[in-house]
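FAQ
Q: What does a multi-component entry look like?
A: The components come first, one per line:
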Amino acid sequence: MQDTKIQESHIADEELVKFLSPRQALAALWEQGLSGVELLLHHSSLVDNFIKTRFHDAVGRDAKGISLLALGGYGRKELFPFSDIDLLLLYRKDSYQLIEPVTDAVLYPLWDTGVEVGHGVRTINECLEDIKKDFFFQVALIDKRFICGDKELFTNLSQKFLASFDKGSRKTFAQDMMAHRAERHSRFGDHTYLLEPNIKDSRGGMRDLQAMFWTGKVLFGLSTPAEFHEEGLLNQKEFQALEDAKNDLFIIRNRLHYASGRKNDRLFFEYQEEIARKLRLYDSRETLGVERFMKKVHTSLYTIATASDLFFEHVEDVINPPKAGKPHRKLAPGIEILNNKIFLTDAKLLLQKPYLLFKAFSLSAEMEIPLHYRSRRRIASLVDRLDEKARRSRRCARYFLETLEKSRTPQSLLQMLDTGLLCFFLPELEHLRALALHDIYHINTVDRHMVETVTCLNQLKERNKGLFSEIQDHKLLFLAAFLHDIGKGLGGRHAARGAEIARGIADRLALTPEQSDTLSFLIENHLFLMDNATRRDLEDESLILKFARHIKSIDRLNMLYLISVADAKATGPNVWNEWKEALLLEIYHKIAHLLQQHDLIDPDRIAAVEWMKEKVSELMGSGEMKALEILPEDYLLSFTPEAVVRHLQIRDKIQGNKVIIIPETRGHYWSILLMTRDRTGLLSKICGIFALYNLNILQAQIFTLKDGTVVDVIDAGHLMDSGMPDDIDWKGLENDLEKALDNKIGLSHRLAAKFGAMATQGSKVSIRAKPRVIIDNEQSDFYSIIEIYTKDSPCLLCSITKTLAEFGINIYKAKIGTSGDQIVDVFYVLNNLGEKLQEEDFLKELKDALLYSAQSCVL
Amino acid sequence: MKKIEAIIKPFKLDDVKEGLNEIGITGMTISEVKGHGRQKGHKEIYRGAEYVVDFIPKIKIELIVNAEIVEQVVEKIRSSANTGKIGDGKIFVLPVEDVIRVRTGEHGKDAV
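Then the predicted structure of the entire assembly, as tokens:
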């Protein structure tokens, strides 16, 4: 035995070489362009010849009672480069002794080459027994093919195999096949498979094709696609499309096997790119080469998926025929419902009144009932005969928009897509069919993503009742959601492109000019909220104001918000999450809040601000545009252009603690411009020094520029109210203020010394009307607003500002003035951390302190 | 080698990336994280429905650098991410035992 083994392995080595080199030759031929199907046939022949040679050498050409059969893919002569070789060694009991020589001669050498060889050794009866127990064996036998040996034995098996299918088992077979198919789809259907499809097992892959033909063979006795066509299960167009899809997938699978160096059916990203290159699909201005490649892949997958869906629905009808005599309900002329499927009954009527096609889908969406497969095939064959009139038909438009609005699940829209009706109605969609953009976020092809966005939008209704009820034009909302990515795949910025394309669509659908504008706006800005929420500083009031003015209305904001959420959810499972939601809500609320303050959005105000900016930059000459960015709007609207320029010039001179004071006499008071750099407690010190110099602040406007420059305009009169004001030592005031800011002056004891007597008088003041202190955190998202109403008194402002300083509060804007005999002080503030004043305890403490200081002199 | 982890405000990501690019650093890992701290979350009431967001969205940046440049990198991150207001974030420096490149198996500094 030992010797024979060595001898055999010796032979195996030679055979190994003989076997491998043709395969390598095969690879070379493929490199030179031997196409998909031919390659497979060639490969099968190669293996056939090897097996026949070995078999005949072992048991001669006239061996009886033993045959070698090819099963599965090898049986179909679809032998891919690294496919398994499935063999069945069929024997008759009395030829049992021939088994060993055959297996030795054929199987061992095959195994030695490293090829995966599946083999079974069975008698005819054993086969018939096993097909009852093993569905996959039964299926493998459908593709059996005689290679060599006893032909009669093979024919015997074939006849008995065919006979084994009685009516009952045919039905069971079909049901098993459909169950396996459904399970396979769910196993290979999650989002990772959408990105990197398994071209054998994913939906629309080769398995679906095989399932179709196995079932066709068992149920209807059909062997080839051509026979399917002849039997009317496929019309010419469908047949051709299926053949093309099959050939494309074969070519791709060959390449994939070679690229992977093994039996791999998964189009991982690296392989996608490599194969695209090998197929000479290069990057263009509009799309990447790999995207063009994947479009081919997805087109083939969709074609096979649709064809097999239609086929299996037909099978379902055959094995479970609808009960005769069951009532069917008429929904509209030519549209009926039976057995939970919608039927289109009158082809002629459909051509006369194409809107019925759209109405059918609208009803399908609303009732969540699919169209029957025959009706879908009918629509697909009708689409070519529809014309421009149908595209412009108002009724078609109406029912199309209704379908969008009612689609809670993707089914109806996807059926509309698969029949070709949607691309007929919106030719702008055509280039997006099966287009997969090459990134890891978008798991769907663009056409499917558009449908998913609409259904996600529908599903948002539950959680966002308020928003939906406020939106005026729901049809527009859903249309915008559907078309938001229509500009993709054309190169350049898809949002702007899409907005352009939408104009044409709006025109055909007979939207009003206003609706068309809004549609384009929504499409152009569908990424606006999300981009800005994640990339911009939402605590910048002027930025939010800019956003609010760009969006202009709360209606548009609401629509943009909903589209943003739906788009993110429809893109992929990792795109929408709480993190993004938090930011999106923040930007939404801040913009909404500003949009409610109509004065801020008032075009007149915007125009006034623009005018100011123009004038200021004119006066300053060119090169000073940067400076304009630091000027808050309120500030700009409070001064003349000349004054602003003056402030900017002064600003250059302020460094460190430098203070610049420019007083102007106004009869019995002064109007004082005070500029310095901002810091905590600034206003308190200004009030204190003014008081020391006998100035009583009558009115003030406090501004802080974005770079920290303080611009205060203070109207002050003489403190003692004794007629004409004395000359004020302004220089001295300036110096002392600088010292105070340098913390070199003790304002407390100085003021106490000066006003000691008045301090006690203060307590009398408190008997009169109670002051009011309001701390408002609602009105502005960016500042806390403190309003103080009280009777005037000499050291009131010192008192209040000192208290604020004590609490570490920074004042950004203030209006200090009088209303009748009341003082009205409004401060826009933030705490020392730069945030609004929030804590309950803190607010109470602050309010109490302010009330106290508003009544008595706190120095 | 050290690992640097930085928690920053989301809108500062581009600034930090640019800043790091300027000093020759291009490799880093970025994640979206939820921050809980002194900064308060959002509570909004819209049409009677209350939206409560009890965290602050932040970005976490992680990178490994050679010990010699840690200070430089940390300062670059800090100054790029700084706004002066509460919530600017924090930077952590941690020791690293080893770094291995998956493709080649290189260890240590060669793999950084």
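Q: Is there any commentary attached?
A: Sometimes. For this entry: Confidence is low (pLDDT under 50) at residues 1-12, 760-767 of chain A.
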